[in-house]
Amino acid sequence: MKSIGFLSFGHWNPSHASQTRSASDALLQSVDLAVAAEELGADGAYFRVHHFARQLASPFPLLAAVGARTSRIEIGTAVIDMRYENPLYMAEDAGAADLIAGGRLQLGISRGSPEQVVDGFRYFGYQPPEGTSDADMARDHTDVFLKVIDGEGFAQPSPRPMFPNPPGLLRVEPYSEGLRERIWWGAGSDATAIWAAQRGMNLMSSTLKNDETGEPFHVQQAKQIQAFRDAWTAAGHDREPRVSVSRSIFALVDDRDRAYFGQRSDEDDQIGWLDSSTRAIFGRSYAAEPDVLIEQLREDEAISAADTLLLTVPNQLGVEYNAHVIEAILTHVAPGLGWR
Question: What is the pTM of this model?
């Protein structure tokens, strides 16, 4: 069995070719797609966060709205760039969204990806301390966030409060019990996967990672997952971690599918550079008739190793078509692989 959800980047474009032409469209259609996915039996609705872009950016209003409109489906991010975040304010927002959703939040966070602007986090008021990097700052913000959502009091109460306080030091409110175990780290390397395991975070591994061995993407990703699980065991945590991978997967079951994805040429991994010193490998996409797709996916070692699969969806093709994409995987592919 495997948890299957969708991952939307929430792109919008005023072009007539897009069915998502404004930020309002992207947000409202995201809610509608989550509702549709829940009705179809999918397990998760996840959203990417990109700043300074025509994409989804501020996750917590969206997560709260989805939580209010759904009752079962997991609701998450993949991922929030922690370089931009005030950890305490984020803890308040996350706690509120999780309570609205009834404890269904699965919050993916990370160091972030290449940006639309140069050092965009500086415009948000954050700058790495002298001698440290933006990645160090993201991990520092994460450590503070994780400590705060543990729920322990740390703030000295006023001797003359406006309202009565409970005894002892105060914590950030609202507090949502169990949220700490539903934090995921988006790891781009084996080392950051190990770092996440040591801190008791679940693992998110996307469609790209640092090219560390020259092997096929799915092989490197499977080894990253094993390194994470080994580190988790060594850390002595008292629960089983979760691991997700993201993939672009399209079952060609009608003429629309064949028109959109039948002639795709990205069936091989690609190599690129995230910056001047970081060589990355980008995983292939899958688009085929269901019987062919089942055999191809059997060979993906990372999908086999993960308990959660996030299907990246082309959100600008509209809610109805994206619901069809999700349904085709759930109906025509997942049972053949033993996922349903």
Answer: 0.96
